[in-house]
Specification:
There is one protein chain. The chain folds into two domains: 51 residues; 212 residues, Orthogonal Bundle (MetI-like fold). It is 81% helix and 0% strand. The chain contains eleven helices and no strands. The two termini are 44 Å apart.
């Protein structure tokens, strides 16, 4: 009797777990939850400000922040800052990611190149990219190139390191098949190393894009007259806290949008990873 009871309890728990997993994995449920949870957080924030639990000087009410955002949209400041920041982000990202990808594939394909470059990468990667800003400003001046170079340095290493890891960890059977079919060096790059390392390459690209968003704010705080980072610094200087929060929101939305776009792009280009 005891064994039968235990068996029934286990069966009930299993069925309950299946129902819970089914409800959690339900796409509409997840979408509703992802929308409702931030709204609840904003509502709590608004209430705490209105009952003076939070200091409105440092934590403006969400409604006040939305009003500031609307004013920035009407004046054109928000879209102007966004346009210049996106130009710098994509420019710096391409300058860093493309060489990082090419050098990473080369290091993964040719052990001699990896042996030569590994010490250089290991020595330069830990240097904080923001610590190099004074040197970069001396070399390039307070120009658009200077800001893109800061972003490029942060992106370059992340794409390179992940690309090398992706190529090096490829199953040897791929190299054997390519060798048996008489693959050229170009074939090794384009048909073996690049497709095989794509999952790790995308990991590097995602990390690089996140780093680019962090570095754009810092780079625009020096010698810039436009941009989201510049707006944060200017808002701080004149104690316009609502506008500062608007810039924070813009950066967080950019991060979310980039993540969603890269995830969908990854799903299209390497569907086998999600099977």
């Amino acid at each position: 009797m005891t064994k039968e009871l235990i068996g029934e309890i286990i069966k009930i728990d299993v069925e309950k777990g299946k129902r819970e997993n089914k409800s959690i994995n339900n796409v509409p449920y997840k979408r509703v939850l992802s929308i409702v949870s931030p709204l609840i957080l904003l509502l709590v924030w608004e209430v705490l400000v209105r009952i003076h639990v939070l200091d409105s000087r440092f934590f403006p009410a969400p409604t006040r922040i939305l009003m500031a955002m609307w004013e920035m949209i009407k004046s054109g400041i928000l879209f102007s800052d966004l346009k210049i920041s996106l130009t710098r982000i994509f420019g710096g990202f391409l300058i860093g990611a493309v060489p990082g990808l090419i050098i990473g594939l080369t290091m993964g394909l040719f052990p001699a190149v990896k042996v030569i470059l590994d010490p250089v990468i290991a020595a330069t990667y830990p240097i904080p990219k923001l610590a190099l800003m004074p040197l970069i400003m001396i070399i390039f001046g307070l120009t658009e190139i200077e800001k893109m170079v800061v972003i490029a340095l942060g992106t370059f290493f992340l794409v390179l390191i992940n690309t090398v890891a992706g190529v090096v960890n490829l199953d040897t059977i791929y190299w054997d098949v390519a060798k048996n079919y008489g693959a050229s060096k170009k074939d090794y790059y384009l048909t073996v190393a690049l497709p095989g390392a794509l999952p790790m390459i995308f990991t590097g690209i995602k990390l690089g894009m996140g780093t680019a968003l962090m570095l754009i704010v810092a780079s625009e705080m020096n010698g810039a007259t436009q941009g989201v980072g510049y707006r944060i610094w200017e808002s701080y200087s004149i104690f316009n806290i609502p506008e500062m929060y608007v810039s924070f929101i813009v950066m967080s939305l950019l991060g979310y949008i980039f993540t969603v776009v890269l995830d969908e792009l990854e799903r299209v280009i390497i569907p086998w990873k999600h099977d």
